[in-house]
Amino acid sequence: VGFHTSDVHRALEAALAGRVPYVFTPPHEGGPRKAGVVLLGDSPARQLGPALHWLSGRQRLRRWALVGNDYIWPRAVHRTAARLVRSLGAEVVLDRLVPFPLAAGDDPEAGFEELVAALVRAGTEAILLSLVGRDLAMFNRVFAASRPAAGVVRLSGALEENVLLAAGGDETGELYAAMRSFAGQGDERRIALAERYRTAFGAAAPVLDAYAEGCYDGVHLAAALAVAGMLSARRGQPGAARLLAG
């Protein structure tokens, strides 16, 4: 069961070569997979398509920028987003991929200040962010302190509660996240999981975010496959599909 970036995912997929089932839990870049790989997360179109349509219609956004880290998942997000943006009658005015990881000695905050200036020059109305981890938190800190922050929409497919905390929160009212679940959701399953988590780890534990929930589901799926006698790479995907459907 794996939760990591998609470049690591693809390397593991090749190394495992279908010998054992491999459950990958976060959002993914789409495309074909080798035998035995089970994807629990969403592809770029499934994750971001509804949010792009909703935001564009609600706020009449016509000038989008795409900003992400330079590896396989953000590249796929940018390709998909560019098509979706055009289908909505809008345009991509800036497409930027930030080195990942940064070279030693680079100042990420200074780099993001330059990027924010470029976004302003391009007349950006909305930004789709496929930055991850520290870079996503730092970009949002820099952007929230800038002049255009209150007037530019930001949408992310990687923003969850812990990165928002690392960014210092956001009071612009224009930061959106497209994730499968959030800590404040009131459905019975989410509430029960949060209660068990607090009992096990205490009130000071990190926020139980969508990534952690995905890992939890992935481990339980692997256990269910074992109980069902389906831990064969060749049979992993159909078995997983039946279990998830149930």
Please give a structural write-up.
- Residues 1-229 form the Leucine-binding protein domain.
- InterPro entries: Leu-bd, Peripla_BP_I.
- It comes from Actinomadura bangladeshensis.
- By secondary structure, the chain is α/β, with parallel strands linked by helices.
- The chain has 2 domains: 6-41 and 210-245, no CATH class; 44-177, Rossmann fold, CATH 3.40.50.2300.
- Helix content is 49%, strand content 13%.
- Helix 2 crosses helix 3 and helix 4 (108-121) packs across helix 5.
- Residues 235-239 and 241-246 have low confidence and may be disordered.
List the helices and strands and how they pair.
Layout: H1 6-16, E1 22-24, E2 37-39, H2 44-59, E3 63-69, H3 72-87, E4 91-98, H4 108-121, E5 126-130, H5 133-144, E6 153-156, H6 161-166, E7 175-177, H7 188-201, H8 210-227, H9 233-245
Parallel strand pairs: 1-2, 3-4, 3-5, 5-6, 6-7
Helix pairs in contact: 2-3, 4-5
Domain Leucine-binding protein: 1-229
Keywords: Signal
Organism: Actinomadura bangladeshensis
